[in-house]
Amino acid sequence: MGRTDKISTGEYVRAVRHAGFVVRKQSDRQIVVIREHPWAYVAVPIQSEFDENTLQSLIQQAGLAKEEFLDLVESTHSKTTVTIDLCGSD
User: Fold this and answer.
1) N or C: which end of the chain has fewer CB within 10 A?
2) pLDDT tens for residues 40-68?
């Protein structure tokens, strides 16, 4: 699957939250995320890493295209650097 190597539950949930999903409930075995429009319900197993088939199934259940999901994952990993000038030079 290429860019989807080593996606964890936390990374999956962060990505789909950017697609409008909210965490509905959580147990020690799974996190349930939902989206109202268009309706989607995904019970995400808590794992440190999904195998390829499980991840493909979770992406499909969310109603997302593979590339769309991968873009969401990348956007949650992007970091913004802010530089502050503490010298106060005029």
Assistant:
1) C
2) 999 999 999 999 999 999 999 999 999 99
Q: What is the pLDDT of residue 81?
A: 44
Domain 9-73: CATH architecture, name and number where available? 2-Layer Sandwich (3.30)
- Residue 77's pLDDT band, with cuts at 50, 70 and 90, is confident
- Indicate whether this model's pTM tops 0.85: no
CA angle 49, 55, 56 (to 5 degrees): 160
3-state helix/strand/coil string of 23-79? EEEECCCEEEEEECCCCEEEEEECCCCCCHHHHHHHHHHCCCCHHHHHHHHHHHHCC
d(CA 78, CA 45): 25
Task: In whole angstroms, give the CA distance from residue 56 to residue 40.
Answer: 15
